[in-house]
Amino acid sequence: MSSPEIKKLKEIIENANNIVFFGGAGVSTESGIPDFRSADGLFSERYKYPPETMLSLSFFKSNTEEFYRFYREKMLYPDAKPNDAHIALANLEQQGKLKDVITQNVDGLHTKAGSKNVLELHGSALRNICMTCKEIYPLEKITQTTGIPLCGCGGTIKPDVILYEEALDATIMQKATKAIYDADVLIIGGTSLNVYPAAGLINYYRGNNLILINKSETPQDRYADLIIRESIGKVLGEIILKVKED
Ligand code: ZN
Fold this sequence. Notes:
By secondary structure, the chain is of the alpha/beta class. The chain has two domains: 1-33 and 82-122 and 167-246, Rossmann fold; 34-76 and 124-161, SIR2/SIRT2 'Small Domain' (2-Layer Sandwich). Helices cover 39% and strands 17% of the residues. The protein contains twelve helices and nine strands. It has a six-stranded parallel beta sheet with strand order 3-2-1-7-8-9, sandwiched between helices. α1 (4-15) crosses α12 (232-245) and α7 packs across α12 (232-245). It is elongated. The chain starts with a helix and ends with a helix. Residues 130, 132-133, 135, 151, 153, 155 line the site of zinc ion (ZN).
């Protein structure tokens, strides 16, 4: 795959020194992590509630065991590996070109790929916190137990992910806003940009290199300086390969 769009993106990246990447679920689907919003047919057979209900704070509190049944089965992919998109972004950071990765995913794959500056808007499944004493536990505390995971103090452990009904972390949102405001290039990938806060955040971008990489159309397409309708892994994998070759 080598199109005029890819060539353009490569040029933009070569001339940039403050790239910010904003990614959604599509970045992780290529690592085999499905977007829970595109729930498969099995879903309705196996669960009594829609995912938005089961992933809400009130459901977590009132139906903790059922929450964890769903969460362990549908939300956790401990064996998932970073794909070409994660690796390319980590490389761009190492080259000093990319300042921040802002992600809506909770799988920790950007960190696994080696990215250091990752702003996780929705938290991380790799961290789990006792609601009573605030002790932090790794993912294994969830994957290697059944039922409701409990802290040594007897408190219930909650994944450090933002559930529905919960506010986003104000500090992380501020950092994300500032990063986008300061960016010379903003690359947005793997998100349909329908979900808050994605759509709002990109309004802070002031530059003239807004790049959208998404397989389908988004409501923000008209603001983009470059649109690439392709898999994010393919595009970024190819770019990083080319930058290295030259
Ligand atoms: Zn505790």
